[in-house]
From TrEMBL:
Organism listed in the record: Coemansia aciculifera
A Gene Ontology BP annotation from the UniProt entry: RNA metabolic process
Gene name of the encoded protein: WDR82
GO molecular function: chromatin binding
Pfam families in the cross-refs: WD40
Sequence similarity: Belongs to the WD repeat SWD2 family.
Compartment list: Nucleus
Keywords: Nucleus, Repeat, WD repeat
This protein's name: WD repeat-containing protein 82
SMART domains assigned: WD40
WD repeats: 123-164, 301-332
Gene Ontology CC entries for this record: Set1C/COMPASS complex
InterPro entries (UniProt xref): Swd2/WDR82, WD40/YVTN_repeat-like_dom_sf, WD40_repeat_CS, WD40_repeat_dom_sf, WD40_rpt
Record keyword Cytoplasm present: no
Length: 387
C-alpha cells in the first residue's frame, strides 16, 4: 500500500466521501494481507482507530497496549498495564490520549497520555467489569457500560461521571445476561442492550430521564447474550447486535424493528467462551462475562464507513463479509417499506488469511482503503500493493 499524505485537504475530501465510490463487493473480495505483526504474546482483545485513520491502538491479554502507524505500516509504541490489565482501549478527542478499561484489581477506566506514558486521571465508579467503552463522536466524553448495570458518560476533564443511568428491563438480568452500550454517529443518542432482553435509546442530554424508546429483543436473543452493539455509519439509522452464539442482527434505529440476521458468522460458535482473557481475580459475573468475552465483546465486528458492508472475524481464523446495502442505501431509507419478517443473510465473501486462531478484533479504517484484523497476529488488509 502506498504511503498517503494525510494533509487537511485530503482528510476533508475523505470525510465528505468516506470510500463510498470505491468500496464495492468486487473491491472487498480483492483485499489481501499487506503487513503482519507477530509481536503479541497472547490474543488481541480490542482495536480502535483514531478519528483521522492514521493510527490504531490494540490491547491484548498479554497486558500490552500497542500503537501503530496505519499509513506507513509501522508499530510506533508499546505500553504495558501489567498491574491492572487492559481492554477496550479508545483514542479520545484529546490528541495523544487514550482511555481503557482495567481487567484486574478493580474496574477503573484509566485515562492515559501515551506521549508521556503517564496517567491523566482515573474514572472511578464501576464496581464490575466494563463491557463497553466508546469515545463520543461529538464531545470530549467517553461512554461506558459495565456488569454492575450502570451506564456512565464521562467528561474527560472530570473524575466524576457527567451522566449516569442504571437501566432496568423486564425479562432480563444484567447479572446473568450482561449489558452493552454505544453512541450513534451524531453523539446525541445512546443505545443500551439491557440484560439481552431490551434495547433502549437515550437522549445523551437527558440520560437521567430514562429511555425515549425501548423494544424487547428477547425473541432475537433467545438463549444467547448480546456481546456488543454499534450503530451503522454514516447516519446511524440501523443498529447491529453481536451475539454470543456467533450471529448478528440488524435493527432499524428508529422503529427498533428487526430487519435482518447474519448467519454463518462464527462457524464454530462462540457461546462457550473461546477468548482466552483471564477472569480470575476480577469482579463481574462469571457466566455472563465469560460468554461475552468468548464473543470478544463484539470487537471482532466492523462496518465499512459507507455503512454498506459488515465484516466479522470468525472462530476459524477467517473474515466474512455481508452486503447490507439493501437496508442502508438511500433508496432503502426513502422507500419506508417495512419488512414482513427479518431476512436471513449469508456471507457475500470470505477472506482467508494466516490467522491461526479466532479473529478477536476487526476494524475498517474510517478514511483509508484498509482493514485490520487480529488473533494473536495483527494483519493489515488492503486492496493495493504491499507496504
Amino acid at each position: 500500500m502506498d504511503t498517503i499524505d494525510h494533509n487537511a485537504d485530503a482528510l476533508n475530501i475523505l470525510r465528505r466521501d468516506p470510500l463510498q465510490s470505491a468500496l464495492t463487493n468486487s473491491t472487498l473480495r480483492g483485499f489481501h494481507i499487506s503487513k503482519q505483526f507477530l509481536d503479541n504474546k497472547a490474543a488481541l482483545t480490542s482495536l480502535d482507530y483514531d478519528s483521522s485513520g492514521r493510527k490504531c491502538i490494540t490491547t491484548s491479554s498479554d497486558e500490552s497496549l500497542r500503537i501503530y502507524d496505519c499509513v506507513g505500516g509501522k508499530r510506533e509504541q508499546v505500553l504495558y498495564s501489567k498491574k491492572y490489565g487492559c481492554n477496550l482501549a479508545q483514542f479520545t478527542s484529546h490528541p495523544g490520549c487514550v482511555a481503557y478499561a482495567s481487567t484486574k484489581i478493580n474496574d477503573t477506566i484509566r485515562y492515559l497520555s501515551y506521549d508521556t506514558n503517564q496517567y491523566i486521571r482515573y474514572f472511578i465508579g464501576h464496581t464490575q467489569r466494563v463491557t463497553s467503552l466508546q469515545r463520543s463522536p461529538a464531545a470530549a466524553t467517553v461512554l461506558s457500560a459495565a456488569l454492575d448495570g450502570v451506564v456512565n458518560v464521562w467528561d474527560l476533564g472530570s473524575v466524576k461521571p457527567a451522566s449516569t443511568v442504571t437501566p432496568v428491563c423486564v425479562g432480563g438480568s444484567v447479572e446473568e445476561r450482561g449489558i452493552v452500550a454505544a453512541y450513534d454517529p451524531s453523539g446525541m443518542v445512546i443505545s443500551v442492550a439491557v440484560g439481552s432482553a431490551e434495547l433502549q435509546l437515550y437522549d445523551v442530554r437527558e440520560v437521567s430521564k430514562g429511555p425515549f424508546k425501548s423494544q424487547s429483543i428477547l425473541d432475537i436473543a433467545g438463549q444467547a447474550l448480546v456481546a456488543g452493539i454499534r450503530f451503522i455509519p454514516p447516519l446511524g439509522d440501523h443498529i447491529l447486535l453481536a451475539m454470543t452464539d456467533g450471529s448478528c442482527h440488524l435493527l432499524d434505529a428508529f422503529s427498533l424493528q428487526h430487519c435482518a440476521s447474519l448467519k454463518g458468522t462464527n462457524p464454530q460458535g462462540a457461546v462457550n467462551g473461546s477468548n482466552p482473557v483471564a477472569t480470575n481475580g476480577v469482579s463481574g459475573t462469571g457466566s455472563a462475562l465469560s460468554k461475552m468475552q468468548g464473543a470478544h465483546l463484539g470487537q471482532n465486528i466492523t462496518v465499512t464507513p459507507d455503512g454498506k458492508t459488515i465484516l466479522v472475524g470468525g472462530q476459524n481464523g477467517s473474515i466474512s463479509f455481508w452486503d447490507i446495502s439493501r437496508y442502508t442505501s438511500a433508496e432503502a431509507r426513502d422507500s419506508n417499506t417495512p419488512a414482513l419478517k427479518p431476512s436471513v443473510l449469508t456471507p457475500d465473501g470470505v477472506w482467508n488469511g494466516s490467522h491461526d486462531g479466532p479473529v478477536g478484533v476487526c476494524a475498517f479504517n474510517p478514511h483509508i482503503m484498509e482493514c485490520i484484523t487480529g488473533s494473536e497476529v495483527l494483519a493489515i488488509w488492503t486492496s493495493s500493493s504491499s507496504y
